[in-house]
Specification:
CATH architecture: 3-Layer(aba) Sandwich
Number of strands: 5
Number of domains: 1
Structural class: alpha/beta
Largest sheet: 5 strands, mixed
Shape: flat
Oligomer: single chain
Strand content: 25-35%
């Protein structure tokens, strides 16, 4: 091999190493809120599922130190859950939720956090598993 070829290969390896170890784009952290109003969940006909999602989201937010407001006019953010698909098969015992959970800034309706998540379980709807999974990146 020629000396020029070896130098060229060494430069290519060095360039690849610099590119791999250079600055990486990181996802900005979601702004933290102190108060949230939990809107009624929608998108499905099972009212027990919708009420369960709302109650579980409120409990989860409280457990993470976020105040849950009863007044949508006196809060800095809104949390909304829209069910895309949910089934509960009595015969097989399998249950499934696919839904979008998002948090909006109350002052300008900009999206603070947005996550679509799918949870599967046995028995009843996996409401707790859905809420925890949908919010895990927010509280990271």
């Amino acid at each position: 091999m020629s000396k020029k070829f070896v130098v060229l290969i060494a430069l290519l390896v060095l360039l690849a190493s610099c590119a791999a170890n250079g600055p990486h784009e990181t996802k900005p952290a979601s702004p933290r809120v102190n108060t949230v109003y939990i809107w009624d969940a929608d998108g499905h006909i099972d009212l027990a599922l919708l009420r369960g999602l709302k109650a579980e989201a409120g409990s989860y937010m409280k457990s993470k130190g976020i105040a849950v407001s009863d007044n949508p006019e006196a809060t800095e953010s809104y949390l909304k859950i829209t069910v895309i698909d949910a089934t509960k098969d009595e015969d097989s015992g399998h249950a499934y939720i696919n839904a979008r959970l998002y948090i909006l800034n109350a002052s300008d309706s900009s999206i603070i956090y947005d996550r679509t998540f799918e949870a599967k379980g046995k028995g009843d709807y996996p409401i707790g598993k859905f809420v925890e999974g949908a919010l895990k990146d927010y509280f990271r």
